[in-house]
Amino acid sequence: MTPADSLQTLGRAADTPTPLLRVQGLSKRFALHPERLLPWRFDKRSRAWRRQRIHAVNGVDLEIQRGDALCVVGESGCGKSTLARLITGLLTPCSGEVHYDGQRVDHLTASQWRPYRRRLQMIFQNPFASLNPRLTVRQALEEPIRLHHGDWPRARVRDSADALMTDVGIDLGWSERFAHEFSGGQRQRIAIARALSVDPEFIVADEPVSALDVSVQAQILNLLMDAQVERRLTYLLITHDLAVVEHFATRVAVMYLGTICELADADTLFANPRHPYSRALLAASPRLQDGHAPPLRLNGETSMPIEPPSGCVFRARCPHANSRCQRERPLPQRLSEGHRIACHAVEEGRI
Ligand SMILES: Nc1ncnc2c1ncn2[C@@H]1O[C@H](COP(=O)(O)OP(=O)(O)OP(=O)(O)O)[C@@H](O)[C@H]1O
Ligand code: SF4
Ligand SMILES: [Mg+2]
């Protein structure tokens, strides 16, 4: 395969600029918890006991260009958070590569990661858990500013924290209060301010609004989107909520059992999802009910990604599966610029 071919397989043209993030063949397996599941399985073919593992992320390829807001969407347990933790260096991959701004970062030690920590920030689902309960809001914001700008005088650090509080909509009169004195939405605002305090360029947000009241979710998403415009941020946002995706995403990656089955611009995916799983996932969307792709009902339930089956991981639930799907894992193919899909039926023109 020539370099140009391999770029085509990744779903982008050969002259695209270096992506801010590039992930290639990324995999993470976890040992099974021995108290909950038997970690060994008797393999009839080799007549030997084999250790079973959870294939949480299984050969993921992904690119994020500067300015993208990429949403990773998929059912619970499909590996979204594991992928986020691999990308941000909180987990080490079993195989594969993570390149940040052209530099390989997956093998770095904690101290080698330090320069990237400022550029790449993470926001979690539970803002209470990510805020130190012993710090006031002001202390929580001034701490990272001081850490990254050791030479700044106190007044400048204070002004910078004040500006952040104003930006995220926290009343300055509340700056001496502790995290537990705020509502969930306000806590998430503080967590966002803390992430922004070091002037990052890339933010990975793992379900940042799913723990919040519906009435507050849009406010927090709008805050993140405003910050994107004002600070020229790039986002990877994880969610299982398609309303969040529609509101937020410029690009969407659909994940199933540790793999990415479809990657496309948000408009393209919502207008015409091609992968059977994307179709099923989006079937509840009003736009799809109006139109193009027929809604697809899934058989069965998603399984744990323990020793995934041969061939396509979706085949047990897919109405288009055939014998090739049983044998051969579908590789990502480029459908059009920026649109990539891993499905034999699409490749063969069956759907
Ligand atoms: N530290 C761990 N040890 C063992 N198994 C793990 C660990 N972390 C995740 N897993 C397993 O890996 C799989 C993927 O988990 P992950 O948390 O990445 O999924 P997710 O898509 O984020 O799910 P959710 O939407 O529920 O947050 C799951 O089967 C999970 O049980
Ligand atoms: S590869 Fe086969 S089983 Fe997998 S989604 Fe496509 S048609 Fe269905
Ligand atoms: Mg998760």
Account of the 3D structure:
With 351 residues, the chain is α/β, with parallel strands linked by helices. The protein has one domain (3-119, 200-347): Rossmann fold, CATH 3.40.50.300. 34% of the residues lie in helices and 23% in strands. It contains 14 helices and 14 strands. The strands form 3 sheets. The chain has an 8-stranded mixed β-sheet, sandwiched between helices. It has a 4-stranded antiparallel β-sheet with strand order 4-1-6-7, with helices on one face. Strand 2 (40-43) and strand 3 form a beta hairpin. Helix 5 (137-148) crosses helix 6 and helix 7 runs parallel beside helix 8 (214-231). The radius of gyration is 22 Å and the shape is globular. Residues 1-14 and 287-295 have low confidence and may be disordered. The structure holds adenosine-5'-triphosphate, iron/sulfur cluster and magnesium ion. Keywords: ATP-binding, Nucleotide-binding, Transport. Residues 21-282 form the ABC transporter domain. Pfam families: ABC_tran, oligo_HPY.
Characteristics:
single chain, 351 residues, alpha/beta, Rossmann fold, eight-stranded mixed beta sheet, four-stranded antiparallel beta sheet, 14 helices, binds adenosine-5'-triphosphate, binds magnesium ion, ABC_transp_ATP-bind
